[in-house]
Amino acid sequence: MNEMTAIKTTIKDWETDQEVRWCPGCGDYAILKAVQRTLPEIGADPSKTVFVSGIGCSSRFPYYVESYGFHTIHGRAPAFATGIKLANPELDVWLVTGDGDGMSIGGNHTMHVIRRNVNTQILLFNNEIYGLTKGQYSPTSREGTPSPTTPLGSVDHPASPCAFALGSGGRFIARAYDVSKDLTTVLKAAHAHQGAAFVEIFQNCIVYNKDRFDDFTAKPVADATQLWVKHGEPMLYAKGTKGIALDVAALRLKVVDVVDGDWQAAGVLVHDQTNRAIAHMLVEMPFGAYPMALGVIYDDPRPTYESALLSQDAKARAGRTPDLAALLAKGQTWTVEG
Amino acid sequence: MATAMMDGPDALTGGKDSAGLAAPEAVVVRFAGDSGDGMQLTGGQFTLSTALSGNDLSTFPDFPAEIRAPQGTLFGVSAFQINFGSTEIDTAGDRPDVLIAMNPAALKVNLPLLKPGGLIIADSGEFSKRNLEKAKYESNPLEDGSLEKWQLLSFDISARTLDAVKPFGLGNKEALRCKNMWTLGLALWMFDRDRQPLIDWLNGKFAKNKVLADANIAALNAGHAYGETAELSGPLRQVHIGPVESEPGLYRTVTGAESISYGLVAGAQLANLPMFFGGYPITPASSILHNLAKLKEFGVTTFQAEDEIAAIASAIGASYAGQLGVTSSSGPGIALKTEAMGLAVMTELPLVIVNSQRGGPSTGLPTKTEQSDLYQAVYGRNGDAPIPVIAARSPSDAFDCAIEACRIATQYMTPVILLTDGYIANASEPWKVPDPKAYEPFPVTFLEEPNGPDGELHPFARDEKGARPWIKAGTPGLMHRIGGIEKNPLTGAIDYSPASHQIMSDARKAKVDGIAKSIPAQEVTLGDASGKLVLVGWGSTFGPIHQAVRRARRKGLDVSHVHVRHVWPLPENLGDLLRGYERVLVPEMNSGQFKTVLRDQYLIDARPLTKTSGQPFTIAEIEAAIEAALA
């Protein structure tokens, strides 16, 4: 987020006159609404807000937010966002991408915008499929995913966006899903973080990958399978009957039963969002034996790229008057007399 | 700036009748050695001393793609050629008069270039059995009589250098590194040059290591002293080349990479904008990024991106946020940027793209020059994506071309491609230092208020030039969305209806075509406005074409030279001008690309004269083509 004067807006102020063209029932609608709810709450100024996207269903997002918006080319939105941020660090830049755009064709740029720590919010809509090109498997598709390009099922191993972001040096890693009521909380935390804030949002593609995340988002299983982590609070789920503890000998996380709410006795970890090692373990917990870690998993800011670069530039400029004529005449010169 | 021919190599070597020879007007010297021998540095310093003595000059650094190729090998030879004289010079010279060969490989690779009767100065100390084998010599050319048709001066430069620097107690390897200064000392003596600027430079360069400074100066002095001694006993003689007549003013030497960097800074100032430069290292374009990284106080931000695509994307992002976005690369990198260029066309944002062309396709010849990216610049994008293209013809011309690129980009809200090449980027020439105040400013006005009749925003409304308004992201109240999808001509909202795409395609084309109205009419560079033959060139072929036409005209041939800066759109009068000649010949360092553009635009019978060897045209090659065309 940026140091700016809070502006009073309502959700309506963030809606454009454009007809939203996602498939009816697409998870993107819920994410759009969550973002449009978040923006007034954080006091965002539409004139100072820029949504930048690449290509794909998710990347149509900027057209639907009443702010500045730049729908760029496939996979490269992070590079555009970096240029925008360096040219005007006052702008509040949101990057909207998907699993194909951000992890496949644009994986390189996702890595570098995170590594450099450009102060942006990176929303990666993960639906584990290519939607806009009609259903091919994506780099996050699970093994065995049947698709037009993998009629016998995909055989390659999926990438884990949060692990990738953390491995790229990310200082803010969060996870949520499209219809979650806590998505706005996560978005607010991402916005509050100074630096590249990476948010993976599981998103239901109702046409090509319907209900793919039902194993943890469906109402009947949600409690038993979602671990919402919160800084300073014990890692409990299943209505407090289960928790996550550290198996010190094996140096990995383990699921423990909590009896009568006595989580201390069960050795349940208290979430420390600045603990990078635990963050690694949380994002890599194999789902099934473990719950799905959601919420702000890691948040430990360090100086942003643009502040470092621009202060270095300012230092280089300090006390110097740009004199082009003098620059051109620099070095060894000679004069031809008239 | 003519390579006036010297009066034969004898003028340099004393020959048979040295007393009777006049001083030559121009001389071509080629320094050649191993990549690690410091030939580029030697050449660079010799260039500087040449410029300071008032000669006109042109240089051609010719080095391998490998940073340190295995020592002594043929492919590891690095050379630096300089043509200088008391008359106008604008090529690095067809064939050297003097070849300084620091080892057998350097001799072997460069000997075919040397003029018959030219002077070879060779370091015999490096002609060991092993080095001869590496250069694939069966016997020692310095001894077997195979160099008879040239003048040969061979002596052990290595040993003499070691002797000269002995008092400084350097290790053998370090001591031998001073060989290039010894050689430079000899060259300075040969051409009667002042050593002091070199001594000052060495003292500055090795300010932190006095011993190295002194050793190098001792080597320089020893080489110089050797010249004086050899004059008494050998074939070497001193030659004095007088200063060239040039316009009064302040001069310096400049390479294309420097002048482009300065021109971009000047262009941003004239547009009253900060500049954002996104780049990714690539030969031979990197030096522009290096230069600009040192110019922060001019409001320049440089960003070394993760790849070529990110470099252009960041520059477009910066333009969107209100700075002048610039990116630069060479052919393969430009290929990667292509999709993003299309986005800049579609979103109509200003952007300057500099292409320092090299031999292609693919990785091609990374350190050698070519003009083979013209199709890529003019035609090379998906969709109808017109982009104006400007080509610089020399290092000093590149300054004005960079300013012109900034003007067109900001005034017409369009990406602009500035073509230069490896030759222009690395070569240096004397430059009359321009006065930045002499250039007409073209300050940018950003849109600050809604521009529609009822207070609404029309981001793609057009001015009389066809340009849309530049709306800086962050301007209060002017929120809007742009992107690569076709848009409504008025509101800018997504609209890929048939009518919108037709209107917008037409508008983008009309805007770029209309740039022709703002550029000067094409002039005849040399010769008459009509006649039997015209040579049409663009880019760095300027020098050899100009010289060849000049020589042919001296012989009474009816030939003119037209050199085009604005490659796209072309000057409005060019078609009529070219139709005034019976024949049109287009020399270019590719397989005939500009020839295609001229045929396409004017239905004229333009003929190609092509060269794709990675080396610039020689004057003689073009002269021969003129004679053949008029025969």
TrEMBL record, chain A:
InterPro entries: 2-oxoacid:Fd_oxidoreductase (IPR051457), THDP-binding (IPR029061), TPP_enzyme_TPP-bd (IPR011766). One of its GO terms (biological process) is cellular respiration. Residues 55-201 form the Thiamine pyrophosphate enzyme TPP-binding domain. Keywords: Oxidoreductase. GO terms for molecular function: oxidoreductase activity, acting on the aldehyde or oxo group of donors, iron-sulfur protein as acceptor; thiamine pyrophosphate binding. Pfam families: TPP_enzyme_C. The keyword Lipid biosynthesis does not apply. This is 2-oxoglutarate ferredoxin oxidoreductase subunit beta. It comes from Novosphingobium nitrogenifigens DSM 19370. The lineage of its organism: Bacteria, Pseudomonadati, Pseudomonadota, Alphaproteobacteria, Sphingomonadales.
TrEMBL record, chain B:
Residues 274-438 form the Pyruvate flavodoxin/ferredoxin oxidoreductase pyrimidine binding domain. This is Pyruvate flavodoxin/ferredoxin oxidoreductase-like protein. GO terms for molecular function: oxidoreductase activity, acting on the aldehyde or oxo group of donors. The keyword Signal does not apply. Residues 36-224 form the Pyruvate/ketoisovalerate oxidoreductase catalytic domain. Keywords: Oxidoreductase, Pyruvate. InterPro entries: 2-oxoacid/accept_OxRdtase_asu, PFOR_II, Pyruvate:ferred/Flavod_OxRd, Pyrv/ketoisovalerate_OxRed_cat, Pyrv_Fd/Flavodoxin_OxRdtase_N, Pyrv_flavodox_OxRed_cen, THDP-binding, Transketo_C/PFOR_II. GO terms for biological process: response to oxidative stress. Residues 533-592 form the Pyruvate:ferredoxin oxidoreductase core domain. CDD domains: TPP_PYR_PFOR_IOR-alpha_like.
